[in-house]
Amino acid sequence: MSGSVQVTQQKQHHQHQKKEQQQHHYESSCHLSTKSSVSQQSFSTYKTSSQRLKTSVKTEKGQQVVKLSPLPTRAKRTYLAMDRDKEVIGYVIPVFRANHESVRSLMEAQGEEVVEEGINYVAMRNLFVAESREATSQVVKVEKKSRTMHVRESATRLEVNKTVDEWSEFRKKMNPDSLTHRPELIIKPRGQTIWEGKTLKLHCTVAGWPKPRITWYKNNVLIDAKAHSEKYITESNYNMHSLEIKNCDFLDTAQYTVSALNIKGETSSVASIVVKRFKEGVEDGPLDPKPHGFCSEHGVTFKTTIIDKFQVAFGREGETMSLGCTVIVYPTVKKYQPEVVWYRNSVPLKPSKWVHTHWSGERATLTLAHLNKEDEGMYTLRINTKSGFDSYSAYVFVQDADVEVEGVPVSPLDVRCHDANKDYVVVTWKQPSMEGSCPILGYYIDRCEVGTHHWAQCNDSPVKYARYPVTGLVEGRSYIFRVRALNKAGVSHASRVSEAVIAMDPSDRARLRAGPSAPFTGMIKFTEEDSTEGVVPGEATDVVVTEATKSYVVLAWKPPVQRGHEGVMYFIEKCMAGSDTWQRVNTGMPVKSPRFALFDLAEGKSYSFRVRCCNSAGVSEASAATGDTTVGDKLGLPSAPGTAVAIRNTATSVVVIWAASKDVVHLAGYYIKCSVVGTDVWMPCNNKPVRQTRFVVHGLSTGVNYVFKVKAVNAAGYSQSSPISDAVVVQAAISLPGKPTDVTLVEAVKDYMELTWTAPAKNGGADIRGYFVDYRTVKGGVVGKWHEMNHKAVTTTSYKAENLKENVFYQFQVRSMNMAGVSKASLPCATLECKEWTITVPGAASGLHVLEVRDTSAVVLWDTPAFSGRSPVNGYYLDIKEASAGAQGWKAVHEKVNKMKYLKVTGLKAATSYVFRVRAQNLAGVGKPSAVLGPILAQSRPGTKEIYVDVDDDGVISMIFECSEMSEGSEFVWSKNYKAMTDTSRLTIVNEKGKSRAIFNSPSLEDLGIFSCVVTGTDGISSSYTLTEEGLKRLLDISHEHKFPVIPFKTEMAMDLLEKGRVRFWTQLEKFTSACQVEYVFNDVVLSQGKKYTMHFDNSTGIIEMFMDSLEVTDEGTFTFNLVDGKAKGTTSLVLIGDEFRALQKKSEFERAEWVRKQGPHFVEYLDFTVTAECNVLLKCKIGNVKPDTEITWSKDSIEIADDDEGAEKIERKDGELIFNIGKISKSDAGIYEVFLKDDRGKDKSLFNLTDAGFQAVKNALFKVIAESSTQIKVISTEHGIELHSDVTYYDEDLRVGWLHKDSKIAASERVKSGVSGEQLWLKINEPTEKDKGKYCMDIFDGKDGLKRVFDLSGKAWEDAFEEFQRLKAAAIAERNRARVVGGLPDVVAIQEGKSLNLTGNVWGEPTPEVSWVKNDKELLPDDHYTLKFEHGKFASITIASVTTADSGKYALVVKNKYGTENGEFTVSVYNPEEEEKKG
Question: Of 911, 797, 918, nearest to 854 (Cα)?
Fold first, then answer.
């Protein structure tokens, strides 16, 4: 049975093979170069051999197994490619329908995968063929089997049947026609939600043949894993595909698409990925800076700092603009550079001919070439690192280029192409910000084929809509477009050209964008398919009207399902409502695109439309008709936006907000315009419409009033302008205040806690109006929700949190509030337990702040501690330190306790920052310091003004404070002693523009104190004025003077004595008018001008004078000048009575006598003495009004000094001066000296008494000159000791000189002596010792107290002097005791030959010197010829017996001891008388 089954199966198998071989295939081969190394001939197709090739392979058990060849016997022609050695090198794929360009692109793109795909295909085929052949190669045997054997064979048979079925199925798949199929997603990627920072992996399984090409997309943007390997990893293994996303962040939230594509089609699947961030509060935007994280790849955390940032920029169309920032990435990693990305309005910018980016490694630069309005927007620089990213943004404004004709509109912008098809495209644009001098009538659209420079106008008449369908394009060609605006004044410049668009079928465009994906093997086989030519296309479906305006109507439809292999074109028909007549619109030329624009329709009429498809086989039936469509504008103008509200922002910008337009369709955006108040000129604030309802207008003038209005715009045109905003002054805006800091507990009781905090450093430009406190409980480290404690803001920086639970832990946070709103909450304080304190000292003071900051001073203020301890606070201590100093730098500002809650700190260093703190004190002691205030920079604000006091003409006293930096909402706030003034009856406040005047209603002692004024809404502008009792009295006096004016006198009445004893009464006015009148009064009697009185009033100088020739007895009394100048009066008087009058009368008489004396020769200066620098005494006097014949006589002791007397030579006369030169004065010069002047006009005498007191006065003056001439003490050393001396110009024997040692007078002794040698004053110290060291003083009497010269003989001065003394002393001893020849030897000795010479020299020396004799520098030794003797240590003798001429020469007696050596030289000359006679 089994054998028959096996035979039947084999027969069926062979019959199946025969059927396959009977099928004919018409094949054509196409050869393409591949990466295979096989020659081109190896790609020929061969018929398979009919013989079966067997190979024997030994198994592990030693059995031989027969292996089939890759090609079975009688196999049908396959699609395997073989070389000449029958080696399979590839395979071919069946034909598929596509145009040649698509095929070529497929082959070129897939060349790299040829070898891999071919080998996989062959390996899979061989595997299944081998298994199949082994299963069918069994030998048919018929034999008798047992039941057990039959059971086993049945089981084997079933297994074989299963194997045969699998093999048959595989053969069907191996048939090329049935093998290829479109991709199929067996397992699709799943959407996931993941935490930020994690790694995500998407998986999918794809089937399809040829092997599909897999691509991944993020929000329809292709993911390039190779370019971003640090972020993405893609894998493909055995039809399993995955995308791995590393370190996910918020920006990775997107729709991820996997696409599988081969030649049979494409399939795709979408998975949504949501990346969640564990963070409370508002979610950051995509460009908000993220915290930097650790980069495990490099082992560091990169930190990015952006400096040298670009600011808000303004450009003009056609210009080139560069934006740049310097970027510092720390730490620096070799060969690592951050990713630099530029954005415009949050859209990444790609390099183009308009946009150029550059990264130098340190600076990122963006260059915008040939600016256009499309370039306007918010530009953002984003620096991506492996640890995160940082960004910086600023707005760029682009102004319109200047128009050539006045009044024409500016160019449109943002030209784009949509819905492109084979011969049709929709062009859209945005209207410009300025219409020109009159409204825009319409727009012209121009097109240009890419590669040419010819622009063709697309519309004959201007279109009103900013949208236009352009028809008549040539399929396959690329076009660019531009738009021009038109009004009555002319046509604008053309807009920037659009991006190029290709006129082609959308499906072809999608296929081109996706790119070929089928693998290429190196050979493509085309097989014939059944022809579908000659088939009439089916009907078009879903015909709809997509756009309808009064200018045109746009139709759209779906192509027919049955279209054949030819392209399908379309005819459009229209029918007017109420009629059954259909009229073909495009009779002459069918359209290729399933879109069509109909023009020239009657406005207001209703039409229906239908479409017919056509090809070469004929025209299809008409499609279903559309409903009736009325020709008219479906898209209306937008409604006007809501009222614009302008809010201050910065000194040059304003924030404008408005309500969005209602019921607006396809809104393009809003245009904002501004105008200076008082003008009717409106300027555009933006040249590119914005979609938001908030816009920051930059480039405004500070301090100028502006108004704003807004227009909405869509494709239909502009809306009406919004209502004009209220005027706003361009100034820095008031913003939210900063967060409070240092929330601290200052007191705790069972059910409440007292909190304090530090006010925010920045108040946002407005005063802090109050604070809100929040609390939450903490249990076991778990915090609860925040709850509000106070619904009404507290105005102090402290709060009593009540109704708390004892022994419960709480946390608190504080928010500040100003007129702009409530700030962010402070950092929560430390966890606090609500339980009663036992502290006795007060808590920390709170609310520290400063006012009146100047270069050298500041006023620090604070609030009372919330917790006063067990007794009331009785004072405070203020501490200060420089901000840069350490914790040890704190020092107290004052020693005594300060009772007030303010203190003015003085003595600060300009431009130095300081910090302050306050400590409160009660009876128990001093509490802990407050929170630190500062740093505060000691620097006066430029233009700082102080409060000054003014008294007007009516006597009103007021304090005035001026401020030039007031903003809208700023106020002057006055206080007394830094407390709000509650008693308004004392002061009246009058505020004018930038000036505040505080007027005293009734000045009195109650007003004494410190008045301060603070300007709100500024950066702490303030000043103060201290009104003291003395200052108040002065102000009251001034007020009285203003109420009751008096004529001010620069000088009160005075009296001068003139020549001849005349008297002058005079005064001088300080302020007066020409109408001032003077009345002269003596003892209440009005005087008039006459012989006795002469009056004069000089209006130019204000000097009033009255002259009298002399004073008589009757003139004793009061002299008065009464003045009247309008309502002002003035009086000045001089009283002359009693002794004062008599002294003045006597002086007047003396002056008259002096005048008489000076009419003849007289002394201008009487005789007096002077001492010159040379210590000569001169008697001098000056004479005047002398003539040549005036007699001048000198006398001493009443004895005239005649011309021939000894003293006459001492008299000199020089330039009206008489001099008697006494010279060096002595007692003999004492006497009375007189000088007499006499001539016919009169005589005069001068006397000087040079005796007793006069003589001593001269001596004292002499002593002063001598003392001042003394030099500083000098020190010299001698062989006897040390000598101190000072030199003087002259020494007088009466001059007292004393010496002091260590402030004690030196007594004269043998060892220490003082004296004078010539002009040298000296002190000699013989044999000095250590006791003589110290300070020496020479006291010289100078006629008064004495003059001292000091010398400190210690230290180096003593050492040098003492060392020199010892040296000189040793030298003197050596000089006294050295060996020397003291006499006895002649200089020359002449002796007759043959006689004996005996010379003896006297020698001295201690110790006794050594004696020797030398001749011609050679020492002589005693012998018979020379006899040398040295007797008694004093006498040295030499005897030369019977001298000869040989004994002539230079001899010397040499004496020597330890102190020195000396030679006594002499010359010996021996002569022969006979020879002398012969010479003679």
Answer: 911
